[in-house]
Amino acid sequence: MQTDSSLYNRLGGYDVIAAFVDNLLEMLKQDPRFSRFGMGRSLDSHRRVRQLNVDLICHRAGGPSFYTGRDMKTSHAGLAITETEWEIGIDCARLALRKLGVGERETNEVIALLEHYTGDIVESSIKASEPAA
Fold it and tell me: Domain tally for the chain?
């Protein structure tokens, strides 16, 4: 394996990234703590979110895809995503990568890619265990 190869190539390309996104979205969909995010969305909207995520990760990992979606701050404005929800999502991402047999180096790079957006996505510093004011 080449050490100078892009993250996209080291992950296994589009198909592995798409499988990662599919696994991650399915985990989040099955987790009752994330049920509020899927309400009122059509199947087409879910497919669009899936494809935008695939394109974003492929693009940021050095692949040939081009991300055409909105910036993360605009896309997540008003969702009031908490630090706890974000941390759970990151844990799910690690698990989804592990299920695909992605190595530790690449896993850490994907997680860093995702964590780049923390400040744009997390709106609420309230932890899930803390009562809302």
Answer: 1
* Residue 43: inside a domain: yes
Q: What percent of the chain has pLDDT over 70?
A: 89
Tally of CB atoms within 10 A around 86: 18
Q: Which domain holds residue 63?
A: 7-121
pTM value? 0.86
The CATH number for 35's domain is: 1.10.490.10
- pLDDT tens for residues 77-93? 989 999 999 999 999 99
Other Cβ atoms less than 10 A from the Cβ of 17: the count is 25
The pLDDT tens digits for 1-53 are 445 699 999 999 999 999 999 999 999 999 999 888 876 678 898 899 999 99
Is 55 a domain residue? yes
Structural tokens at position 41:
């969305």
Q: What tokens appear for 24 in the block?
A: 């991650």
In this structure, what DSSP letter does residue 62 have? T
